[in-house]
């Protein structure tokens, strides 16, 4: 089998092209590292335009529709009427930080990245809580279809979402207290 | 009342879940790595096929088989990462794989030109060394589960590093290859360059030593001009390392290795103390030593002459003259912008085209575009290492991450700079590309350590309550 000059020329130029595509692929995957994180959209921008992403339910349209279909269930499921935007599940778009609301380090906060957060007494957790009521691997906050979910990892004293002990992985609403041991925290904008 | 997660459930409240429901989280980083790895393996296979088409005009199955061997090995390493370091950086492994594969393709191309086949050919040996090196990397990942373990062995690492460095001087064990005594060999077959492994041991030692002692090196000293200079008695460590690298120049007759170790120490010292005066001091020490060496040592003087006056016909034709260097430059010039095409150039005219001069060979056949792609791959690899060091929380990890990746960067600069006549040529291997087992083993171990570091960095606590 012999190959013509032209085929070889095309092949070798194609090879260089693929080599560079590989490099640009890596650079594209690294873009947030190289050029910094993309600036978040302001709240006003997101609510206004019609082209807003579907994953970001507007608080104006959702409650009437939900109330019309099943008002009683909606009330039963509503965790706490004290907060205004409590219906919003925390997603990657609307939750930016984790704030400790009670406990020894009340008031501290750290930003949420895309990574899941493990909570427990062990040193390899992302959020280490050292008190007598926390298990070694107590719970974890993770992203499930872009929604923040909390999962209790079979802890001894339990994880409480808005005062209720939770059994299965549950989506965390914004501004809702999650209590672990003597520490509570919320996910906020 | 310390709570433990595996206590009996009967004493607890009834609301307690009887069983934890498992959610299987996708390993996003590992999936990205797998995707890039498959592309890298594809490019490697394509390069071998192009070499065969260009040099033989047909596709032969011998080395396609060996290329599949490399792919299988890196995929095995990927699977290991899925279990023992799932948060590790996803770019390091594909980049290292691609560089290694391109190197094997180029070495195979030179084997074809020299008509070497079977076990005698460098490409088959290179593939076998790659297998060993990736095996070592997997072993490092499995054994070292946390890089801070290495901190305990700081001084042992230092001792091992110096011992490995001095091993070629042991009579009967050391081998001299083209003037430099940096090899060891048992009998006639197995030769190894222990200095390559020594650079890892020394990086561990420097990191541990500087974390322990940096206060005395960074806090005190007299201010002179705009910089704070260290006290005379704190100059001990830098003088010891300087003496060590000078002895490498004198006794092992290897300029590149000496520059590599001294540069590594200097960068880590700067990183640990943040003082520019150390860098100035170290560079003037090394430059002074190098100038004295070029005046007194014949081989160093020859290297300088070849560098400064390479195209002079007298130097070109002289024994040990600039023939090799200039042949490499001719090859690069022949390559031009897009190269002659894999398998279609004549890189075998240059002496040792598969090890020291592999960059010139690749430049001839892939052209400027190909060389820049390779340099970009190195740049990305080193940048990932720096990023890992930057993100680390513990000082030892920071220093180790930056030190290990800087070694790769400096080695690239010394070799590629030497071949392209930016600096005097010194014999070092191009990381991952050049034929040479010890270099491959050392660089794959560096890859494993960087992967381990990046995994630990991502798993660090963000807040302790």
- The gross shape of chain A turns out to be elongated
Give the topology string of chain B: H per helix, E per strand. HHHHHHEEEHEEHHHHHHHHHE
Average residue-wise pLDDT of chain A: 74
What is the helical fraction of chain B, as a range of percent?
Answer: 55-70%
* Number of DSSP E strands of chain A: 11
Task: Count every helix of chain A, treating DSSP H or I runs of 4 or more residues as helices.
Answer: 5
Structural write-up:
The complex is a heterodimer of chains A (189) and B (465). Chain A is α+β, with helices and mostly antiparallel strands. In chain A, 26% of the residues lie in helices and 23% in strands. Chain A has five helices and eleven strands. In chain A, the strands form two sheets. A six-stranded antiparallel sheet of chain A has the order 2-1-11-10-7-8, with no helix packed on it. In chain A, β7 and β8 form a beta hairpin. About 24% of the residues of chain A have low confidence. In chain B, β2 and β3 form a beta hairpin. Chain B has 465 residues and is mainly alpha-helical. The radius of gyration of chain B is 24 Å and the shape is globular. Chain B has a three-stranded antiparallel sheet, with no helix packed on it. The longest helix of chain B has 34 residues. The two termini of chain B are 17 Å apart. The interface between A and B is large, with 63 and 56 residues. Chain B: It is a multi-pass membrane protein. Chain B: InterPro entries: FtsW/RodA (IPR001182). Chain B: Keywords: Cell shape, Membrane, Transmembrane, Transmembrane helix.
